[in-house]
Amino acid sequence: MESYLLDWANLLLRWVHVITAIAWVGSSFYFVFLDSSLTPPVDEDLKRQGVSGELWAVHGGGFYHPVKFAGAPPQLPKHLHWFFWESYSTWISGFALFTVSYLWSASTYLIDKSRMDWAPATAVMVALAFLAVFWLLYDAICRIFGQRRNGDAIVGALVFVLVCAASWLACHWFAGRAAFLLVGAMIATSMSANVFFWIIPGQRKVIAQMKAGQPVDPIHGKRGKQRSVHNTYFTLPVLFCMLSNHYSFTWSHPQNWLILILMMFAGASIRQFFVMRHGWKLGRNAHPLPYALVGCAVIVGTIVGLRLAQPPAAAGAPAAGAAGPVDYAQLQPVLAQRCYMCHGEQVQMKNLRLDSAASVAQHAQALYQQAVVQKLMPMNNATGMTDAERDLVRRWFEGGASTR
């Protein structure tokens, strides 16, 4: 019953998380586009009101004319929309999903004993520390260097080093799939923290100063803009981290930390292309195509490098296609040693049993996919399944998956 309920919780939370993430990322992308596409107002009345930029757009059969005020508008509107629940709901649903999927069953999903053989409670505390410590260090970097000369470049370089260090530690301390997800959650936590601690409070202070008839301090807008820009560049790396858990060839690699860093760097570089292309259309900057080419080159290099670095077949394991099919009598001892612990009579995780020929025949495709193609099972290879045994499963499946 517990496994059944956890599966439903995982599904529903994942559903909510994806929906709210789409809303947050979509609004972020839109406002970056909007800021980059604004042109000085032509109408004299808009100029007198303090409008610094405007945009005409057509969508859904209608015309839109958003404007941006350089400072405070002449008066506050009766209804003012705040963009923060997209961020908060994404983080809340994401953290709940991370708790249900990884923290609740830390010994199964979070811990890889070949890396760190620690107690589940310890692993959970360290994972949570990643979220908090990264935010504190990132925030300190922004506070100390953000307003200095060349502050954006300094902050960018230091945050990149910080992300690299965190990625290396996560991949050496946790199971590969959990490590990738943890790095994504770590960065996403800082994105939401930027909204919660800086962007929204700064906007509230601006409104309070306007209501009190005081001059608006521009520092709040500058700080909020800085953190908002950081969130923009974090977006694609975070999305890669969240999607990568479905592709074991990334996080199961011996140098998975390097793959993670390269793919996040590629995502940030490609995002730079999309950020600058709007300005290029208006003649404000050079064509940003080189950023996209660099990002794509890193991705292609990673793909080629992974292929070339694939280890040869394990000693004693026959090369693919070199041996004949395997019968069920040869397969059954491997299943008993490596799979019955979680998929036997006593424990039937995911409602799957592999201790009967009929059930093995029914789930042959899933067994082949999980143990051979993706190498997801056994989870974190807790039972020590060898490459030779995985090849035996492959030969059994490709030979017709007979259980007679």
Oligomer: single chain
How much helix, percentage-wise, in residues?
Answer: 55-70%
**Gross geometry:** elongated
Please state the CA-atom Rg, rounded to the nearest Å.
26 Å
In percent, how much strand structure appears in the residues?
A: under 5%
| Mean pLDDT value | 88
> Uncertain spans, ≥5 residues at pLDDT below 50?
313-321
Content-based structural category: mainly alpha
Q: How many angstroms does the end-to-end distance come to?
A: 33 Å
What's the total number of strands? 4
The ordered string of helix (H) and strand (E) elements is HHEEEEHHHHHHHHHHHHHH
Largest sheet: 2 strands, antiparallel
Number of helices in the DSSP assignment = 16
Question: What is the topology, as strand order, of the major beta sheet?
Answer: 1-4
List key phrases describing it:
404 residues; two-stranded antiparallel sheet; two-stranded antiparallel ribbon; 16 helices; elongated
